[in-house]
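Entry type: protein chain
Record version: 2
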Amino acid sequence: MAITNYGTLKAAIADFLNRDDLTAVIPTFIDFAQDKINRDLRTRQMVARATANIDSQYNAFPANFLQVRDIRLNTNPVQALEYVSSEQQNQERSRNATSGRPRLFSVIGESFEVFPTPDTSYECEIAYYEKIPDMTADSDTNWLLTKSPELFVYGSLVHSAPYLKDEDKIVIWQTLYRDVFNSLTLEDEKSRFSGTTPRMRTRSFG
């Protein structure tokens, strides 16, 4: 069976399990698998850029944010912000609380803190890893399902085993999942030295 969208993914998982009574729970297996993929996978296809004007100490990340790569101010010249821990930034702020052009940033939950506090509005550009797009309708797909449907299949089967109390299969599904995951990671590492760079999407946020 060719796995081309959310509907065929669910059908493939049912076929692997040889069950026709799991229609209601297979989407949960897929959700759990995608949550784990979002936590673990970092490839070039997940990199996006977003821009916004910042004028305060705290600023929200884009809604689909997973992990920051870099933040820069689109000034002349462009200024890259240096990452520091929140503790280090607090120390800097305690020594000098004046406002100015930001030069440091820290990650605070779903937002980032800059120092100094902006003295005006600055256009900020973030390169970050974004979440794998969700699928809800049977016709939905995303880049990862197209590239590696087996990662979704095996990841979902890992989560099916405890539900079905099939402990013998957990190690099998985990091994297959990890093999595919490692292959994707290795392919991404090789691509960094191939001389090709994917076109990153730029969107606005904030």
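Comment: Helices lie at 6-17, 26-40, 86-95, 143-147, 149-164, 167-191.
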